[in-house]
Amino acid sequence: QVHVVESGGDVVATGGSLSLSCAASGNLDGFIGMAWHRQPPGSQRELVARLLGGGATYYTESMKGRATISANGARNVVFLHMNNLKPEDTAVYYCDYIIASGGGVDHNWGQGTQVTVSA
Q1: Using an 8 Å Cβ cutoff, are 85 and 15 in contact?
Q2: Within its chain, how far is the Cα of 7 from the centroid?
Q3: pLDDT at position 7, please?
Q4: pLDDT for 54-100, tens place per residue?
Q5: Are 30 and 40 in contact (CB under 8 A)?
Q6: Phi, psi angles (nearest 5°) of residue 92
Q7: Strands of the chain, DSSP E
Q8: For residues 12 and 18, is the Cβ–Cβ distance under 8 A?
Q9: DSSP 42
């Protein structure tokens, strides 16, 4: 069982910066990667950034150059630093802790943290 908790969501002005954190605990064996997704109001959840165990990163096009995903050495905490925030970045941000389990892949989600960017 993996428990995931996000934090850091806030209300920020357009052009501001924000850092989100995600802490995972429990049985973290079989680590594959960690990712941030977001769900804007009335829209589907979308991938924002992903960090794999080997260090490879992925960013959705709209966040390239404005977001950085990183993790601590133990790979149980992942961060998402965002700058030059825009109103369209307003969303609930979710952390996904990905592990290999039972021959498959388990995605472990937190409850989300609200990011609101005011115009």
Answers
A1: yes
A2: 10
A3: 98
A4: 899 999 999 999 999 999 999 999 999 999 999 999 999 999 999 99
A5: no
A6: -90, 125
A7: 2-7, 11-13, 18-26, 31-39, 46-52, 57-59, 67-71, 77-82, 91-101, 104-109, 113-118
A8: yes
A9: T
Q: Which of 88, 109, 85, 79 is nearest to 97 (CA)?
A: 109
Which residue in this structure is represented by tokens 């404005």? 66
Compute the distance between CA of residue 71 and CA of residue 56 in angstroms, rounded to an integer. 12
83 alpha carbon, distance to own chain's centre: 14
Question: Own/partner pairs for 38-42, CB < 8 Å, 24+ apart?
Answer: 38/89, 38/91, 38/92, 38/93, 38/94, 38/115, 39/91, 39/92, 39/94, 39/112, 40/88, 40/90, 40/91, 41/90, 41/91
Mean pLDDT of 4-26: 98
Parallel, antiparallel or unpaired: strands 46-52 and 113-118: unpaired
Which amino acid, one-letter code, is at 30?
Answer: G
